[in-house]
Specification:
The chain is an alpha+beta fold. It is 37% helix and 32% strand.
Amino acid sequence: MDYERGLILFLSKFAHKFTMMDTNFLPFDQVKQLYPNEWVLLGNPAMHNTSVAGGIVIYRSKDKKEVCYIGKDKTDDYSTVTIALAGDINF
């Protein structure tokens, strides 16, 4: 099973929970389209192995430190949070 198909199956199993929990949940592919090459702080993230499958965007910026410092005061309403880059890392 390829990664995309596995991710679709994973999200479909839990889609009803996401819509019941918060209507602001976004799949990570959509987050990447909305906020290309930005760091995003996600509340209640869904994970697929070690990859972010989606979450609720709490804060975003091109500056990772800004997301960390400003975003930390916005996380109280979420059981878990994560920071992810909605783009590609260029070396």
